[in-house]
């Protein structure tokens, strides 16, 4: 059995940040029949936003 913690909040569309993945979910996604259409590319982050993102990812 696998457990997942998903956090979501309202925010502008941005790049996906994958914190951790497993082979099981990756396989399930790769085999999915009804994959959604890709979203348009998000705007790039400025240096300040990227620094904040890196600091938050470090925990």
Short description:
By secondary structure, this protein is mainly alpha-helical.
Descriptive notes:
- By secondary structure, this protein is mainly α.
- It is built from 2 helices and no strands.
- It has helices spanning 23-30, 47-58.
- The radius of gyration is 14 Å and the shape is extended.
- The mean pLDDT is 79.
Secondary-structure element string: HH
Straight-line N-to-C gap: 26 Å
- Structural class comes to mainly alpha
CA-based shape: extended
Largest sheet: none
Helix content: 25-40%
What is the helix tally? Answer: 2
Which regions are unreliable across 5 or more consecutive residues at pLDDT < 50? none
Notable characteristics:
59 residues; mainly alpha; 2 helices; 0% strand
How do the strands and helices of this protein lay out in sequence?
Blueprint: H1 23-30, H2 47-58
